[in-house]
Amino acid sequence: MTESTAGFALQDICVLGGIITDFICYVDKEPASGETVLASDFSQGFGGKGANQCIMAARMGASCHMVGKVGSDPNGVETLQNFENHLVNKDSVEVDSSSHTGVATISVEKSSGKNRIIVAQGANKNVDAFFIGSHSSAFENCRVTLAGMEVMQDAVIEALRRAKNFKRTTILNPAPAPNGFNQELFNLADVLCPNESEAAKLVGKPTDFIKSVEDAKQVARDLRKYGAKTIIITLGEMGCIAMAEGSENIFHVEVPPVNAIDTTGAGDCFCGCLAFFMARFPKLALEEKIRRSCAVASVSVQKRGTQLSFPRKEELPAELFQ
Ligand SMILES: Nc1ncnc2c1ncn2[C@@H]1O[C@H](COP(=O)(O)OP(=O)(O)O)[C@@H](O)[C@H]1O
Ligand SMILES: [Mg+2]
Fold first, then answer.
1. Is 222 a known active-site residue?
2. Tens digit of pLDDT for each residue in 187-213?
């Protein structure tokens, strides 16, 4: 199917998710409770899991449509410009004058590259099912819909329902994993793609439950019992495990060791790439789509920043696009 009902050529990816401005402090060591530490470096960047995923997919060369909200403030204006710079269709990014653009304060520990994040959702909180209803064509006009949970859960459900009604492929990145995850989402997502802590939370286990590939496999089997179709759990430097729809076999995709200096946004880089390979290379084996997405994500962790660390197609090996 290459045309929408309106007769337009389909676009590749519609992303529904959080749009946030990141304020990143680089610290030698995370502060303990009640402690103040001085950051050695600071940067402000474009963020939000949804926006990151959309920008990554666009950098891979996908035609993308973003759905979400910003506030009527300078951060919102800059964010819209960033979408425009990446040729992302922003017709469904509304400026919400009743709120601020979402913000995140992020600390990155220099020694490990590990991050801690606090999000003030702002306009993202007003992305609800009603809003999705007025932007339905975005889900119709794109081959793949990729959704995340930094917006209202009823919006995610409505978006995936609409995408499925239009017979489109759906990917759900259940991040951050909400309390009270609606079980219908297991069925609405063709691909469920959490990281290790989100996956554990979805099956009612402690967020630090997964410490090994074997633990992750156990959680994948539990997710399948809840009705999840294709399951991909990203495991940081351990790569990913995956279980394809209709199969009980779980395979592990390893990533070669790299010098990780900032893992912020690694999961978003992975999800954006996965959406790209699903939209542009649907016939490629699942394992190969994952291997290629991991390859790009491991490039991104070797550079500082979130979107700043995402490579462009021209910087990546040509084999990834064959
Ligand atoms: N330290 C690392 N070394 C190499 N690759 C990494 C590293 N951290 C993350 N990645 C890559 O990024 C993907 C997503 O990272 P992960 O940490 O699981 O997601 P999230 O950012 O959502 O926590 C991994 O599957 C892997 O391919
Ligand atoms: Mg991680």
1. no
2. 999 999 999 999 999 999 999 999 999
